[in-house]
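Two proteins were folded this term; both appear here.
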Amino acid sequence: MNVTQRHHAFVSLAVLAGKELSSLEGFLAEDEAQECREAARHFEGLEPAEATEKAKHLLRSLLAMERFSGLAEIHPAWVLTALAEESPRTIGVILRYLPSRHVRYILEHLPETVRQNIPQLLEIFSLPTPLLSIIKRRFEQRFLRLPMSREQGEFAFEHLYLLKPEELQALFFDVGLHEMAMAFSGLSAKTVHTILNRLPLREAKQVRARLDAVQGFPEALLHEARFTVIEASSSKPGVNQFVTEIGLAAFARSLGEGHDLLLKRLMLKLPPVFGYALKRAAEEWKKASDDAVIAFRQQLVLERLRDAGYRDSMIDSRIAA
């Protein structure tokens, strides 16, 4: 049985509304009803006034957890690394403040001995609120702050970290395909055909479709792209990994100087293998391009973002046309 914060919130709201859980079970799937019944056991035997106070306390705790959103924007692998230095009780506190996808990832990768010693949800709620606040603030301070989109004005290149982790990886893959198209621009049709035959059909079609779009790009940019593709190497097999790492190297060339903060924020949003690859590429190419090419690349990244059409992104409507 997997009783979550959502089930505790549902039962607490029912208590505050003076509703019997049995009268609401018709609105729930059977497995959800069972988990809510389990959550409701913590109110058994309480007087109405006591149950109301307990429900209020529980909802305040859940609301505080919801507000602790900074870590939710960080890839769970980085959070897992930091949690390795903490006690099971502290890990339990932090897990209650994370979204379910982070919790699943962390629990799957924690040692069994640690998982077995993590306190239950209600035991965490019994801790004094000031203590919970101290624990979460101390842990959150380990990481660079990631301001949310509502704090930003017009979307610009330095706001790319606002993309969801999966959107960032999709963007870097797309940039990698575009870098390959730029690298192949100007080559003979026979050479391009030979190279593309080595790619899976879908990716080969995508690169070929972009060849016309990159015609007329600055020669310095096309020259850079050839070096990016030639020097690309991946420690893991598979076209996705290879193209994504080309995209990371290409994106690193767009950073230039003055985007160290963006680089650090992007690293936190990516799996460590990609985060470190981006950092290495940024260090290698930091002064390799002139300002005009860097500016062209930055605009190209934003264009690729628009063309990808992230309709579900939190920042979609704010990407400048």
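Next, the second protein.
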Amino acid sequence: MGARRALLGLIPLGLAGLLVGCASAGQHEDTGFHVVSSLPADGADDVVESQTPELRLSSAADSEACTGDSVGLVALTDEGGVGYELDVEVDLLDNGNKLSLAHDEHFASGTRYAFVVRTGSSGCVDVEGRPLRPFAASFDVP
């Protein structure tokens, strides 16, 4: 599998099925399965090219459902659309309460990236079957 998959068809659809801008950490009540925090944090502008992004979750994720098909990273265009999606390997850490999104290639210098949380039948769920709530955070690599 290559390090990038073009997402050209998603831009006109307003990123349907990809929730990049619906909610960010700290905007949720303490109910349901949600992202508690991200590393890098939303708005970070000093991310190193080799950093492995992480999502801290409110409960343990289901390892079968929380994969690179349900949670990922995209590079954004200057206009804010999706340029391409990175291939990521999702690892569950801290008893499933943290997702690590390892990527094959270093981040590109001068690029903004965003976390992607997919919903529906291919979405990430916790061990109780609750779907991961929408989440958005972006960060910049100088």
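Residues 1-28 have pLDDT under 50 and may be disordered. The beta strands are 4-6, 35-39, 54-57, 71-76, 82-86, 88-93, 98-103, 111-117, 138-141. These notes refer to the second protein only.
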